[in-house]
Design brief:
- The chain has helices at about 25-40, 60-75, 90-100, 110-115, and strands at about 5-10, 15-20, 45-50, 80, 100-105.
- It is an alpha/beta fold.
- It has one domain (about 5-115): STAS domain (Transcription Regulator spoIIAA).
- A five-stranded mixed sheet has the order 1-2-3-4-5, sandwiched between helices.
- Helix 1 (about 25-40) packs parallel to helix 2 (about 60-75) and helix 2 runs parallel beside helix 3.
- The protein starts with a strand and ends with a helix.
Length: about 120
């Protein structure tokens, strides 16, 4: 299992486009990579396009990833993650937000960009 990450540096935010396969366990290193790329690009706003990278995860995995997102991103990063609608339950987002992260999970790029720039 592996993924490819394309990086687009917009003046207002960093866009990461992920494609490929992954396991739930690999999502932890992917989250770390998002933070590393934001630091490298000196951006506090990040748009993650995971339409070509997502897989179905259990609610337990989403909860654990939400905790990891909050730990890694903290309140310093504002991150919008785009996923196919059928993969979104909002559990990971709520878990991360309740632990201090500034996160949106959505299936809409328009909504994600509007939220990032608000």
């Amino acid at each position: 299992m592996s993924y490819k990450l394309s990086i687009v540096e917009d003046p207002d935010y960093l866009k990461l486009i992920a494609t490929g396969d992954h396991s739930a366990a690999e999502m932890y290193s992917f989250i770390d990579r998002i933070k590393a790329e934001a630091v490298r690009a000196r951006r506090q706003k990040v748009l993650v396009d995971s339409f070509g990278y997502s897989s179905l995860m259990s609610e337990t995995e989403k909860f654990s990833l939400g905790c990891h997102l909050a730990k890694v991103f903290g309140p310093q990063l504002k991150v919008a993650i785009m996923l196919p609608a059928e993969h979104i339950s909002k559990l990971g987002e709520l878990t991360a937000e309740n632990r201090g992260a500034d996160l949106l999970v959505t299936s809409s790029e328009t909504e994600a960009i509007s939220w990032l720039l608000a």
